[in-house]
Amino acid sequence: MTENIIEVRDLVKHYPVTRGIVFKKTIGQVKAVDGVSFELKAGETLGVVGESGCGKSTLARVLMNLERPTAGQVLYKGQDISKLSGGALRRLRRQIQLVMQDPYTSLNPRMTVGDLIGEPFEIHPDVAPRGSRRSKVKELLDLVGLNPEHINRYPHQFSGGQRQRIGIARALALRPEVIVCDEPVSALDVSIQAQVMNLLEKLQAEFGLSYVFIAHDLSVVRHLSDRVAVMYLGKMVEIGTEDEIYERPTHPYTQALLSAVPVPDPTLRDNKAIIRLTGDVPSPVSPPSGCRFRTRCWKAQDICAQEVPLLQIRRGSDHPSACHFAEKREIVATHEAA
Amino acid sequence: MSDPTAASIVSTPPATMPTEAGSGAPTNAGLPESQQKQQKPRGLLGDAWLDLRRKPLFWISAAFIVLFLLMAAFPSLFTSGDAVNGTLSRSRVEPSADAWFGYDVQGRDVFARTIYGARASIVVAVLSTMGTLLIGGAMGIIAGYRGGWVDALLSRIADIFFGLPFVLGSIVILTTFNGAGTDNGEWQIMGLVIMSLTVLSWPVTMRLMRSSVLATKEADYIVAARALGAGTGRIILKHLLPNCLAPLLVYGTIMVGSFIGAEATLSFLGIGLKTPVVSWGIMISEAQNYIRVSPYLLFFPSAFLVAAVLSFVMLGEAVREALDPKLR
Amino acid sequence: MSEQSAPGADGSGRPSGRLLEVDDLRVEFRTRDGVAKVINGVTYHVDAGETLAVLGESGSGKSVTAQTIMGILDTPPGFVTGGQVRFHGKDMLAMSAEQRRRIRGEGIAMIFQDSLSALNPVFTVGFQIAEQFRIRRGMSRADAKKRAIEMLDQVKIPNAKGRYSNYPHQFSGGMRQRAMIAMSLALDPEVLIADEPTTALDVTVQAQIMDLLGELQRERQMGMILITHDLGVVADVADRIAVMYAGRIVEEADVYDLYAKPAHPYTLGLLNSIPRMDEKGQELRTIKGLPPNLMNIPPGCPFNPRCPMAQPVCREKLPPLLQVGRSRASACHFAEELVNRD
Asked: Which residue numbers delimit the ABC transporter domain (chain C) (predicted)?
């Protein structure tokens, strides 16, 4: 089970910033994703965390081949998907599916649930013969915990959590190997969020799915992920197993991020060593030189401005970390909560 | 035919939150179960229909429209009079029990002429509206969906047509092809009028469609469809069109009304339909010299014209209110 | 529900008594599809210097309560059908519009989740703050500007002077939220209602904003009502918590008691269903089902269809919010059992 199903190599996605309507002039580049590499193994969940603007949603779009990368490769079983088009691309789409964040906007309000979940079969008619589609849709509804009788309803007749289930059923229809989940539970209420997370886990076990699970909620990511990658301003700053990232983080940004997560336990209020970052994330149009985190980092030295720290295993870190001064630091709160 | 209306109608109904009044959130959670009680599921259009059914405005205008459509289709149901030929001896005989609307200068039955006049007015208006919607809608979809230079080009072309003053533009077109001395048949003239109305009005629908497409095309469900591997055709037909159609539908209804008026204006000016065709505009035009002596000659066709225009405009208004999720 | 006494922060000194009390408030939304009973007898209070967290999921009525307190409830569809909101003992719902307007800003201020839409995009941030000093305090242009810059400085906006003439869209999310805090605190309110103040923000920025709010609250001895769905944020800053479900308070308790031993099955379910950073891999214990339809709230306890402890009595009798032990109240027939279990 250690086969790499997806490999991402030096992925870059820049969006030009233009001015003018008729004569467009490029005045800069939004460096949304700027040199990201990782691999996804069969059957595992890779969590991707980061704050808004770190490029995690762009990453999802490039993985889904909704956007072509500026540079770099996305390999699905050794095949560069960003070079595919036409029929080959359509066939690939069966293998990689997407679950989106907002259950209110990701379903066409004018289609019934049956049409929505049946749409994948219409686009890929060879997957299921016409006659069997309706029963397949019902099976899928049942699978994600919805009443198959509701096949003729419209999305607005469902609650947020139920709509997210519809979205999941749609993604599952073609029996993909990989599902990219872009903040799938962020828009849901706590009690509903837990139901959807349990469903995702159940489906993974049942179908041997691999997930790329993108979220900003660190506890959600930990709960579901085998490995976790932390992104900051278009770069991956640290990657490792869930244990390595949450228990032994070595990049200062990861440490700060983890310490800032509010823990639902008032008794930890006073003995929590919280690292308070100052300021906001710089603009991705003109990111800082060298290490992108240096403007908010308490460890920053001259070298951080001059040299881009590579994501690699370092002295003081048993897993890849992109910090010149990577070292362990206790994050009190995550341990003692219980 | 001015653009400002466009802004108010562009209410793309993208995946709105469950249709609820006011601040949305509080009652959201409960919605699904309330809907479960209704046996028949209904879409957003179904919702709009339920809403429409409760509006007297809708029923009144719809009744009038049905009446006018019947008039246009089967005028003989309403009158046995002769709309074209008259007896000069009855010239300008006042309304009576015998001829409810009286007789015109040439002794023709005004009631019969008014009834028969509906056909030309409505045919011209409906066909021009369809033409405008088709051309404008298609251009709008292409411009909005493709974007880039296609959009820039189409939008500039639309601007040029939009810049032509409506009445002046149609006078130019119609005097060229349908001026004094030309000898066009009834259907030819109708065709010309329809063409001039369409040519001068499509930019409005194009803008409407384009802005509606622009707002919808970034929607998550379009991205989701692309992720599934849906082609351009499917995305436009299945996802984009149904969600962009509502504002166009509303505008089209209102447009039928204003085209009825436009047809009458052109006929009145003498460059639209001409006798022996019967239309309200021609009747009004003929009546203008006798306003003082026989006001009823002007009154009856005008009343029908105003009623027809108003019914369509009010129907459009009712449909807009029903489709606009914000008003719910 | 009058027997529900105040489980004060620590029961000791209450300097200015009951600052703001909501008493048996009832609000309904009259919509096309029917009448939704959004708030069904909510009672809570906040004293000077304490933080009350109102916790609930969407549709629980937590924000509508705040809107009613502020007098910014959309009417229609929202209608207050009963109860009182007392500020310094005076019922605000019975006041004239003019009197209420005077309380807004100076007596009670509110900050919203979405700072981008809460600030007017066509005026500079500084101007919007200064305007309040000019209109409400009659200050001169120059004085107002000086005060506004002081306010921006107090909420730790770097280079406050330079930022004064920036427009809202030139601020980042965190900065904008700070500006909004500055604006709502400009007239020195006694109560601050913060409606999901950090929900739209990133974790690291959220921590900064919560710190700032806590600091300002302590300095000014304000009463604060923090409305949120985030159990983590609440644990960090609240003194007392009121948990809302289907337009009712189902549990009210001191923050430590509540997390240590919830006295209502809903609270217990919520606490169980959040993924925690220290528990990996186990299936989350969820609350089954969905929140009730507010147009058709089940008889008895509104939570009974989802409750693992539900008994026949729960389907018949609505449990009132009653004292359990010393400093807490719960609206569950079996609250005692919950509290006394191991």
From this structure: 20-271
